[in-house]
Amino acid sequence: MTFGVTVLGTATPHPRPDRPCSGYLLHTAATRIWVDAGTGTLAELQRHTALADVDAIWISHTHADHAADLLPAYYALLFAGLPPHRPTLLGPPGLAHRLETFLASTGPNPADAAFDVRELHDGARFDVGDLSLRTAAVDHGVPAFGLRAAHDGRVFAYSGDTAPCPALDALADGADLFLCEADGGGPDHCAPEDAARAGRGAGGLLITHVGPGLTEAEAAERAAAPVARTGVTYPIGSS
């Protein structure tokens, strides 16, 4: 498989036994991007690749179930004796300050000591290795972004956390695989039916981030799509 996504965790709002919070490893033969760093995902990441081999970390928004493991990643990169490495950190405005504020009790700890920090904005485009990334602002009540990643003519799309919105539909349209949250609805989130509607233009739909008010079986039935499973790698397009 030359282009795929490995699920590191899907839980919300807190990790469960054997189920970390939101995180995914997007990879080709040459490039690795850690997409969302929810609580518990750093440990799961290391089942599949070394932190020193991650080219970039992409954070959809600053809620802890999508970003908290940036903290142990910071310590690992600087103080664990790993090979020198400073991955690109792509995240919403204010992410670096949020990280630095948490670390400040031990003295100055600039985020850019561990990460090459770059801020996302609507329509931002980045090339990381052989992956082309495009960012779209979505509707989550805080600055939040969805991701569209292309490699060799194939496209992966990820919702982050969002209510139904035109940007979500555009992200999914024409993607070979669309990974969409299905928290259960309510403010700032998608219900499984919303994920299904947004994913109509995609070649395949995979739901994730199912909230505590739903069982995964209920969510899968309502979305008519499978639920992402921790530890499983899903191909993107034909290999």
Total beta strand runs: 13
User: What is the count of structural domains?
Assistant: 1
CATH class: Alpha Beta
Query: The CATH topology is what?
Result: Metallo-beta-lactamase, Chain A
Strands side by side in the biggest sheet: 6-5-4-3-2-1-13
CATH homologous superfamily heading: Ribonuclease Z/Hydroxyacylglutathione hydrolase-like
Strand percent estimate: 25-35%
Q: Write the H/E string, N to C.
A: EEEHEHHEHEEEEEHEHEHE
What value does the Rg take, in angstroms? 16 Å
Mean pLDDT: 95
Low-confidence stretches: none
Reported CATH architecture = 4-Layer Sandwich
Summarize this, please?
By secondary structure, the protein is α/β, with parallel strands linked by helices. It contains seven helices and 13 strands. The protein has a single domain (3-231), classed as 4-Layer Sandwich (Metallo-beta-lactamase, Chain A), CATH 3.60.15.
What can you tell me about this protein's structure?
- The protein is of the alpha/beta class.
- It has a single domain (3-231), classed as Ribonuclease Z/Hydroxyacylglutathione hydrolase-like (Metallo-beta-lactamase, Chain A).
- It has helices at 41-45, 64-67, 70-79, 95-103, 166-172, 192-198, 216-223, and strands spanning 3-9, 23-28, 32-37, 56-58, 88-91, 116-119, 125-128, 131-137, 145-151, 154-158, 177-181, 205-208, 233-235.
- The strands form two sheets. Strands 6-5-4-3-2-1-13 form a seven-stranded mixed sheet. Strands 7-8-9-10-11-12 form a six-stranded mixed sheet.
- Helix 6 (192-198) links the parallel strand 11 (177-181) and strand 12 (205-208).
- Helix 6 (192-198) packs parallel to helix 7.
- The longest helix has 10 residues, at 70-79.
- The N and C termini lie close together (6 Å).
- This is Ribonuclease BN (tRNA processing enzyme).
- Residues 20-209 form the Metallo-beta-lactamase domain.
